[in-house]
Design a protein that fits this description.
The protein is built from seven helices and seven strands. By secondary structure, it is α+β, with helices and mostly antiparallel strands. The strands form two sheets. A four-stranded mixed sheet has the order 3-4-1-5, covered by helices on one side. A three-stranded antiparallel sheet has the order 2-7-6. Helix 3 packs antiparallel against helix 7. The radius of gyration is 18 Å and the shape is flat.
Length: about 210
């Protein structure tokens, strides 16, 4: 898998396992579970279901980062978000994680991070690695400020309880709230969760 994380474009291949609503909220519904099961030969749906709360908690940590690029301030919340993503890539044992500082091109430019990983690479000596299919994901983790539309705690919830709504009758999570929950932190974390699930399922084909 090749990952490009920057703060400019919004681009994601149709590999997302959740459906996203407007107003920067993720809605977790029965339809989402159906979408996830379509990937039964690609990822482990059992792993996704088992780790749903863990994945959402990790997403909430990313949503809490005040990664506002429009302020033009170097580092800060954008760098905090980058470190959270980098930590996840290390947990997934990515083969290569590189960060490129773009300040020489523009004084207010933030860095770009590139991660690569080959999953289930065959070990026999004469295997042609060029035959492994490549999947590219391109995401960003910067967001807009609260801008009076949200309170600061709504835009950047610091606790799991502030970040997630639950159904009082079932206790199931129903919404993830905050800046970036659907654009684009939620999309990014859905991809990372799918990769983690793919890695846990035995017999999956090699992929770069």
């Amino acid at each position: 898998f090749f990952f490009f994380f920057d703060i400019v474009s919004i681009a994601l291949l149709p590999f997302v396992l959740l459906l996203f609503s407007s107003s920067c909220r993720i809605i977790i519904t029965e339809t989402d579970a159906t979408q996830i099961r379509r990937f039964v030969n690609i990822a482990s749906d059992a792993s996704l279901e088992t780790n749903l709360e863990k994945n959402v908690r990790e997403l909430c940590r990313l949503v809490s980062a005040e990664s506002i690029s429009a302020s033009g301030t170097k580092g800060g919340g954008v760098e905090d978000a980058r470190k959270i993503v980098e930590q996840k890539l290390k947990e997934l044992k990515f083969d290569s994680i590189k960060t490129f500082d773009l300040e020489k091109y523009h004084p207010k430019a933030h860095s770009v991070m590139v991660g690569t990983k080959v999953i289930n690479k065959p070990t026999f000596a004469d295997f042609d690695e060029t035959l492994i299919p490549t999947v590219l994901f391109y995401n960003h983790y910067d967001v807009q400020p609260a801008d009076g539309l949200w309170t600061e705690s709504e835009a950047f919830p610091k606790t799991f309880e502030e970040c997630v709504n639950t159904n009082p009758e079932t206790g199931n999570m129903t919404q993830v709230k905050g800046r970036g929950a659907s654009d684009n932190k939620g999309n990014l974390w859905a991809v990372l969760s799918a990769i983690e699930a793919y890695m846990t399922k035995k017999g999956n084909k090699p992929v770069r």
